Amino acid sequence: MASTGFVVPPYPYDRLDGAKKLAAGLPGGLVDLSVGTPCDPPLPAVVEALARSGSERGYPTSLGSPAYREAAAAWVARRLGAEVDPALEVAACIGTKEFVATTPQYLRLLRPDRDTVLYPAIAYPTYDMGAQFAGCRSVPVPVDEAFRIDLTAIDPEDAARALCLWVNTPGNPAGGLDDLGQAAAWGRSHDVAVFSDECYIEFTWDGPPRTILAHGTEGVVAVHSLSKRSNLAGLRIGFYAGDRALVHFLSEVRKHAGFMVPGPVQAAGAVAYGDDQHVDEQRGRYRARMERLAQALRGLGLSVALPGGSFYLWIRVPGGDAWAATEWLARHGGALVSPGEFYGVAGSEYIRVALVQPDDRIDLVTQRLASAPTFTGC
Fold it and tell me: Which of the residues in the chain have pLDDT under 50?
């Protein structure tokens, strides 16, 4: 049947098949550094809680169990120095990607006179897709030289039409650290809800972790996930917290839509948020991997700076051809990386390298690159 409606774009990572074949042909095979999928083991106590919760028979609450919400709020207070009420200002979500992708359509029910989603020009692609799924205008906001969102660059007409502003700290892919107090103030002054995606917060390298909740909850919602923090991407669990009217509205809509984190997963999530030692150990792993691979890439003549946060290296490609650089690294290092255009047109001269493989696989890439020709640009 012919259609003139929405055309689903290709999923970005499906476009890497050619580079995958090049990398797979090397002895030892492909080392996938393209997607931020954790590889390290989760906390054993989390796995035990998943198996022994006894909650698998009944439907879980969409809002999240009291135990899970209390554990999340306690973590926010203990680790981030902010306060949220677990009964009124915290709710569970199925990971955070689905939350990012679906929230604009729900906000349009709340504010049908607005039709614009603002987000950083170099960013996780789901902010843009969520706007498109809602039939909204998708408007990227420029970032500065440190990859921080430039709120002064927002057109007043776009601000007047905005349903929400997304910020992401530490940022994916570039690791930038936004001024979240400024973002909260901008939202309040323009009557725009600010959603702060903070899923990499435990991997902040420059200074302490930053949360928008430290600047009050009025008009803001922070979004958190256990996927990165606790190596639990397969469990699909996170939470959102902040403005109690927004949290209440979204949780009620999501209840009707049937969004429910499975009961055993909520039990496991409560245990994960109660333990910080395994996160500190994971921080050490990521830091060491980033430093090791950054050194190897510098040996090729690339300029590689460590990020302010996250576990990605964001590298400008000499000559600006990120796809050619992606193929070069696959051919010579057996490493699959992501061209920067996946994260917006403004990132088209960059590649993103995710440090999400075990140490022996990272070492394999560094060994291959040690004997590779100098990278001269593409």
Answer: none
Predicted pLDDT at 372 = 86
Q: How many CB atoms lie within 10 A of CB 56?
A: 13
Question: Residues 332-370: pLDDT tens digits?
Answer: 999 999 999 999 999 999 999 999 999 999 999 999 999
Helix, strand, coil percentages (3-state) for the chain, rounded to 5, are: 45, 15, 40
What is the distance between the alpha carbons of residues 317 and 343, in angstroms, rounded to a whole number? 15
Please choose, from the candidates 224, 228, 163, 175, the residue with its C-alpha nearest in 3D space to the C-alpha of residue 343.
Answer: 175
Q: Cβ–Cβ contacts within 10 Å for residue 196, how many?
A: 27
Rounded to 10°, the helix 263-273/66-75 angle is 30
Q: Which helix (H) or strand (E) holds 350?
A: strand 350-354
Domains along the chain with CATH numbers: 12-41+278-370 (3.90.1150.10), 44-273 (3.40.640.10)
Amino acid at 285: R
Q: Decide if 50 contacts 264 (C-beta within 8 A).
A: yes
Q: Does the CA dihedral 42-355-34-315 come out positive or negative?
A: positive
* Side-chain-facing half-sphere of 72: CA atoms under 13 Å: 32
Among the listed residues 188, 2, 191, 26, the one whose alpha carbon sits nearest the alpha carbon of residue 113: 191
Asked if residue 45 lies in contact with residue 246, where contact means CB atoms within 8 angstroms, the answer is no
Whether pTM exceeds 0.70: yes
Residues 6+ apart with CB under 8 A from 228: 36, 38, 199, 200, 202, 203, 311
Length reported for the chain:
378
Q: How far is the C-alpha of 166 from the C-alpha of 156, rounded, in Å? A: 17
**DSSP secondary structure of 213-229:** GGG-STTEEEEEEHHHH
Contact status, residue 194 vs residue 187, Cβ threshold 8 Å:
yes
Copy the structure tokens of residue 360.
Answer: 């022996």
Residue 7: how many CB atoms within 10 A of its CB? 6
pLDDT digits (tens, 9 = 90+) for 34-82: 999 999 999 999 999 999 998 999 999 999 999 999 999 999 999 999 9
The residue type of 225 is S
> Tokens 């040690």 — which residue?
370
